[in-house]
Sequence to fold (766 residues):
Amino acid sequence: MRDVAIIGVGRTPVGEHWGSSLRMLAADAINEALKNAGLTQVDALYLGNAYGASVSSQTHLGALVADYAGLSGIEAYTCEAAEASGAAALRTAYMAVASGSVETALVVGVEKSTDTVGGARVMARNVSIDADFEAAQGATITALAAMLMRRYMHEYHVGLDVFEGFSINAHANGGRSEYAMFRNTIKPGRFAGAPLVSDPVNLFDSAPDADGAAALVITTAERAGDLVPQPIRIAASSAATDTLALHDRSDLLYLKGANLSAYKAYQQAAIQPSDIDLFELHDAFTILSTLTLEATGFAERGEGWKLAQSNAIGLAGDLPISTFGGLKSRGNPAGAAGVYQAVEACLQLRGEAGANQVANARIAMIQNLGGLGSTAITHVLKA
Amino acid sequence: MRDVAIIGVGRTPVGEHWGSSLRMLAADAINEALKNAGLTQVDALYLGNAYGASVSSQTHLGALVADYAGLSGIEAYTCEAAEASGAAALRTAYMAVASGSVETALVVGVEKSTDTVGGARVMARNVSIDADFEAAQGATITALAAMLMRRYMHEYHVGLDVFEGFSINAHANGGRSEYAMFRNTIKPGRFAGAPLVSDPVNLFDSAPDADGAAALVITTAERAGDLVPQPIRIAASSAATDTLALHDRSDLLYLKGANLSAYKAYQQAAIQPSDIDLFELHDAFTILSTLTLEATGFAERGEGWKLAQSNAIGLAGDLPISTFGGLKSRGNPAGAAGVYQAVEACLQLRGEAGANQVANARIAMIQNLGGLGSTAITHVLKA
Fold:
């Protein structure tokens, strides 16, 4: 297996891009990433997208985006694992380059979800849960996250307020980034009283639907050193799954997929959780952040929220998370979220994170979840 | 790069499976492929599907199908390139095993498209053409194929009847297979007068929407030899694209993607077109068969239809195509079509094709197209 590195990054601001279509957003991120890598051509493009069919009546985005970005003819297709689609595209590109099938590849995650409102948006986003046994009964992904959170509060005897540190941290970091969608500060004590979305999940708890695109250029580690001063090596790439429907899980409060994929990554990268300098986790809901920290070896079961009570998850803490605002403040452009995580981790490892810089960051982990942990794809990046 | 081989195949009959959901069809094919390989577990599952979101309101099929097939926990995600999704999944599995990331992988293509009728079906299938500049103007993939066919007839001064050999051959072969959807014989001279779908494309010209699932088990060539008596080696895997919208093509009658991907495959497999014993091409419309043969080195431009006038494409011909009926007679379960092609090619190379056997088949090429050649993914298989 050939060693693989990231040599270019690009992204659009996250927000409501009503004036840009999927192809336009994707091309903006691609052009920036190619420029960042000093290249004008690649061999392949792997694209992450979750809601193209349901929001924009458009699939087949690989060929469409390759052509629109001026790369017509190259290999291109879409990778989809709901909200983990961006990481699935990165993993595919990693395997393409590692195998020798492809020398240089683009990864682009792109999503538009804000062109729909109300019930139409709920329907369009709800394709990632079990259509026959969850969505058909009226469940939504937010309602299911609320059930997880309620169960957690019941099992571990904690109130809603214990989760507030995750959102306070995300907004504190997002407030420093011009790419973030919601840069407002969340003041301590205000979290538990925010307007409800699906009890107990509230407005300060759940990441906003968003539009955006992010891109990476990757190639062999050998070639990377000749092309850019600071290639970022992909030290591990792994994926795992859990049941799609929550009712099929034997243990509702344990993210099996997140656990399996993280530990495969630790083994491949030959590291321990304690070696990780920052962790871009999938904070679509604070309950996901909590359960992720417990599943990936950073907290005991029932205690993930405690990391958010201390300064541990801040930029200067032991385990900085959501360093550019995470899904909560940067915004959640579903199929692009995993690529944003990778772009942000690369900027940290290059020392180019500006006001969001984690000091001496050498090893970053990123984990992108689909649904409520039904898919978990993990990458470890090294400076 | 590690050599890769196919060690198990499975498929459901192609047709209208109103009593089976996506997960049920996929699991049927998976179980048969695992049994065929003599395995009960794999490391990863790559799934091809084109219309899950638009027909069944279901994405995230990787995790869903892995769990339903009793493989919960393994790596799993979807690969999508419209009707070439099945081949995209095969290509991803190939790269996963070739890279060393994965030892044994399942490929499954699954589609349901017959649960919708009339306008709803047109809308659901139309997501693979350009939503903003084709579909929004009322175009459908069949109407666009009709434009291609009309242009071809005009440029090369041929009538509709010259294409009939493709459909006669497909139905002659499909009539011998219990897996085919339409097994009726098409009599010479009846083609040009069939009821029109989109002038000049008619009922005997276009492949039927269908439901079905097909699966492959693949592993390293080294391991394959220990597991099964007749592993089928993947000698080449390649992908290329063309514009999504027809109006963006500088040459309407030249399938650039099909050409690029086929010639990359010839190079990788170190073969010439004349070395190929059978070619499962993407015969969704006879104009696609014609243009494919011209783009891939089997016919001069303007002469692809001539191969269908002779016995060249029959089971005993120089270049057998659609040996189990192709998309036209076997049926076109979009995102599964490319995996059916691979299953059928493996059976030919194993000598297990029964009444459909091509004598002494040693090298097979399969090419799966998305849209009207916007994506082209080619594999060369060797006995």
